[in-house]
Write a structure and sequence with these properties.
The protein has 347 residues and is mostly helical. The protein has five helices and three strands.
């Protein structure tokens, strides 16, 4: 495009120079006046000076006008030539600028092409590097995923192994605990069995002893009752007004009531001890109980009045088991027995 513009400018410049040359040549008079043939004829002419002067003046004016016209024409030609020269120089400057611009443009084009090629190379290189990076990233992700899967698998395996170990440890602990508990239960059962055997033997001995005591008490009670009856019959037959006999009768009655209360207290103690769960630690200790009974011997209340606490708790439990105690027929003895104080001491 720029090469065509340069060629056109050169052609225009050449045409302008040709036009200028033609103009210059057309203003120059190359014709030569041919001399008229002269002969020997002589003509006499009358010359009018005024006319001659007028013609001379006209000739001068014409010459001056022609000279001025030529000067104006030359000036116009000079101006045209200067303008054309200016245009030529401007055109040359423009052509030089165009050529410089063309060179620069070609240089820019070459640089741009080189830059484009470099950019393409860089792009291809970057694309290749990106492809390699993507491939490396993909491989790294695959390796990371595989490593994570392996880690999770190992972690799960470790957790399962730890759970299995903990279960085994727990099973072993439970087995050992069960073994210790079984051994402790066996020992406790054996001790309980021995205690029960000892308690049973002791209870049987106490029961036998209590039965003997009960029979003896019943016998003595019967004897005492019979004696009381005989005494009351004898006293009723005797003179009721004798003071000394009355005092003696009162003293005998008091002793009888005291003996009966003591006898029934022993019976109650035996009954409690028969229902007492004896522990080896109870031997040599005692418990003092206070009982309140109804008129027919039903237990109303039992309280601890002193002694070993554990023995007292066991004794109160035995009292509750008995729940009802035998009562004599004598109202005075019954009244004494309704609030009685007993001492329980396992033997």
């Amino acid at each position: 495009m720029k090469s065509n513009s340069y060629t056109t400018a050169v052609i225009i410049s050449l045409l302008l120079h040709a036009v200028l040359l033609v103009v210059l040549l057309s203003g120059t008079d190359f014709s030569t006046s041919k001399p008229k043939p002269s002969g020997n004829t002589i003509q006499a002419v009358v010359v009018d000076p005024a006319l001659v002067n007028q013609q001379a003046k006209q000739i001068r004016q014409q010459r001056e006008a022609a000279k001025k016209s030529e000067q104006d024409r030359l000036k116009r030609l000079e101006q045209q030539a200067a303008s054309l020269e200016k245009q030529r120089k401007a055109e040359e400057q423009r052509l030089r600028q165009l050529k410089s611009d063309k060179v620069k443009a070609e240089q820019e084009t070459r640089r741009a092409e080189a830059e484009r090629k470099r950019i393409n190379v860089e792009k291809r290189k970057a694309a290749e590097e990106k492809r390699k990076a993507d491939e490396a990233t993909k491989v790294a992700k695959q390796q990371a995923a595989k490593a994570e899967a392996d880690r999770k698998q190992k972690q799960e395996a470790a957790q399962k192994a730890e759970l299995t170990r903990q279960k085994k440890v727990e099973q072993q602990r439970k087995a050992e605990e069960a073994t210790r508990k079984a051994e402790a239960d066996r020992k406790a059962a054996e001790a309980e069995r021995k205690a029960q055997v000892a308690a049973k033997e002791k209870a049987e001995a106490a029961a036998r002893k209590a039965e003997v005591a009960r029979k003896e008490a019943v016998r003595k009670a019967a004897e005492a009752k019979e004696l009381q009856r005989q005494q009351e019959a004898a006293l009723n037959d005797m003179f009721a007004g004798l003071e000394t006999e009355s005092e003696q009768r009162g003293g005998a009655r008091g002793q009888f009531v005291a003996d009966e209360v003591s006898r029934y207290g022993a019976i109650y103690t035996q009954m409690i001890q028969q229902n007492l769960l004896v522990d080896q630690s109870f031997f040599g200790k005692e418990c003092i109980l206070t009982m309140r009974l109804s008129a027919n011997g039903l237990l109303l209340n039992a309280s601890e009045a002193g002694g070993d606490n554990r023995l007292c708790r066991a004794a109160k439990a035995a009292v509750v088991k008995v729940s009802q105690f035998p009562m004599p027929d004598d109202p005075q003895v019954v009244e004494k027995l309704r609030s009685i104080r007993l001492t329980v001491s396992p033997q």
